[in-house]
């Protein structure tokens, strides 16, 4: 763990900016519940994202679109109760901000008041700038999200790499600068070419965090269920699995079933 990590008690936007300036990489994972958030926070993760990916990994939906603001608040409040040092960011879910900056602010205020989170994340560039400015003017830190934006999956029609052509790459770079100018404290780039992500990270002064955006950005984020191998089906090139928890939990459950069926559990020592 780095010197910056050792000397601080609580991660803030100021600390994250200092990490970018000092060249220290920022670590970020998703979290959706108290127990897992406590482990990740104790381990020293810099940012916990209460992602709308809860729609997929917690609720079993095909996309992130079905999750509601109330459900995001439930997950976020569970995470915030667990943390001591991590910076907690919450996704504004689909339908809680699009096309209406007033509604975006109302949704954000509900999240901040009801969860105790430290900031929100919003997908999109120029089309959401009014909302970004309005939220920041209310004193709430905003993290941007460009590239593959899962809430727009039906518009894209595919989860393929984004911004591979000059037109889309130029727009992404312009959107990144707009978000910074609007006051965003950080930016997530999802599934774009590594050299484009490098260009964005070099041209922005705020931290740029990648998922499938290569090694030249200021930090990395993964979905916790993917990183720990709780999911087996999802195998994108950018994912590194650090554990294979699906198999470990499967095996442990089978052993438990076996012991119960054979009356090996509980033993005399495991009863009162």
Automatic annotation (TrEMBL):
EC number(s) per entry: 2.1.2.11
Pathway: Cofactor biosynthesis; (R)-pantothenate biosynthesis; (R)-pantoate from 3-methyl-2-oxobutanoate: step 1/2
Alphabetical list of InterPro entries matching this protein: Pantoate_hydroxy_MeTrfase (IPR003700), Pyrv/PenolPyrv_kinase-like_dom (IPR015813), Pyrv_kinase-like_dom_sf (IPR040442)
Binding site for Mg(2+): 52, 91, 123
Chief place of localization: cytoplasm
Catalytic activity: (6R)-5,10-methylene-5,6,7,8-tetrahydrofolate + 3-methyl-2-oxobutanoate + H2O = 2-dehydropantoate + (6S)-5,6,7,8-tetrahydrofolate
Cofactor(s) in the UniProt record: Mg(2+)
Name of the top EC class for this enzyme: transferase
Pfam families referenced in this protein's UniProt entry, alphabetically: Pantoate_transf
GO molecular function: 3-methyl-2-oxobutanoate hydroxymethyltransferase activity; magnesium ion binding; methyltransferase activity
Cited function: Catalyzes the reversible reaction in which hydroxymethyl group from 5,10-methylenetetrahydrofolate is transferred onto alpha-ketoisovalerate to form ketopantoate.
Assembly description: Homodecamer; pentamer of dimers.
Name assigned to this protein: 3-methyl-2-oxobutanoate hydroxymethyltransferase
Species annotation: Chitinophaga barathri
């Amino acid at each position: 763990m780095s010197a910056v990590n050792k000397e601080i008690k609580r991660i803030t936007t100021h600390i994250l900016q200092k990490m970018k300036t000092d060249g220290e990489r920022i670590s970020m994972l998703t979290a959706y519940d108290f127990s897992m958030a406590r482990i990740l926070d104790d381990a020293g993760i810099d940012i916990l994202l209460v992602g709308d990916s809860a729609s997929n990994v917690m609720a079993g939906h095909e996309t992130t679109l079905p999750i509601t603001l109330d459900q995001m608040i439930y997950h976020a409040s569970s995470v915030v109760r667990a943390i001591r040092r991590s910076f907690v960011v919450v996704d504004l879910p689909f339908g809680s901000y699009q096309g209406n900056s007033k509604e975006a602010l109302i949704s954000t205020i509900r999240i901040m008041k009801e969860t105790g989170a430290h900031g929100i994340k919003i997908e999109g560039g120029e089309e959401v700038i009014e909302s970004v400015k309005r939220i920041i003017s209310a004193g709430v830190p905003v993290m941007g999200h460009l590239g593959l934006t899962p809430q727009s999956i039906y518009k894209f029609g595919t989860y393929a790499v984004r911004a591979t052509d000059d037109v889309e790459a130029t727009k992404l770079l312009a959107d990144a600068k707009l978000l910074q100018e609007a006051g965003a404290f950080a930016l997530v780039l999802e599934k774009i070419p590594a050299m484009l992500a490098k260009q964005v990270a070099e041209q922005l002064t705020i931290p740029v965090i990648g998922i499938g955006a290569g090694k030249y950005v200021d930090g990395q984020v993964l979905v916790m269920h993917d990183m720990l191998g709780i999911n087996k089906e999802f195998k994108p090139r950018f994912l590194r699995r650090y554990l294979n928890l699906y198999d470990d939990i499967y095996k442990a459950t089978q052993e438990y079933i076996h012991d119960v069926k054979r009356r090996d559990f509980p033993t005399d020592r495991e009863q009162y």
